[in-house]
Amino acid sequence: MQGPSSSLIWGTANPKGLESSYNGIYLNGDDVQQMIVQVRDANRNGEQIPVKLEHTGVAVGHVVSAWENQGTLECVLELNERVFEGSIGSEFIRSGICKDLSLGYTIDMEQSKAGVVRAKRKMLKEISIVKKGARKNCHIHGISNRPS
After folding, report:
1. Which residue from 28, 34, 37, 83 has the least number of CB within 10 angstroms?
2. Do residues 138 and 101 touch, judged by C-beta distance below 8 A?
């Protein structure tokens, strides 16, 4: 729940997932669904997925929820403004310096005896607030107003 020193951010963290037959480093539709489950499970287990600035430094918040909207990965993030970096992150968003989101995830790779390499499981490690994301249409759509 949003506290007195936090901000909620809504944004698109991944563009429409590729077709399910795609097997590479980007997310397909099944991967998007798995990341939604990973967020839900992490929150249920008290193991929140961190939010960072430009994929570095301390966590400035955590992922509150994630869902799919016409194939895209949408999310709500809570920034902790009691942490210096979280306060700066909120200001970067409000001032338009940071307009995008970017996923940080790992991929388990598997090679068959025939030498075929496949991407197996993609694990969401963090979502970052960034100046310019690597993927198109991964924008921050809104940030909550500061409490009065």
Report:
1. 37
2. yes
* Type of residue found at 88: I
Q: 2 falls in which pLDDT band (50, 70, 90)?
A: low
Q: How many Cβ atoms from other residues are within 10 Å of residue 48's Cβ? A: 15
Sheet holding 6-14, edge to edge: 100-111, 117-130, 50-53, 56-69, 72-80, 6-14, 140-143
Nearest Cα neighbor of 36 from 16, 15, 1, 65 is 65
* CATH class belonging to 6-143: alpha beta
CB contact set of 47 (below 8 Å; sequence gap of 6+): none
Kindly state the helix (H) or strand (E) to which residue 2 belongs, with its residue range.
none
Closest to 86 (Cα-Cα) out of 58, 48, 49, 63: 58
Weakest-pLDDT range from 10-14, 79-83, 109-113: 109-113
Give 11-59 pLDDT, tens digit per residue.
999 999 999 889 889 999 999 999 999 999 999 999 999 999 999 999 9
Give me the chain's average pLDDT, please.
93
Reading the block at residue 132, the tokens are 């310019």
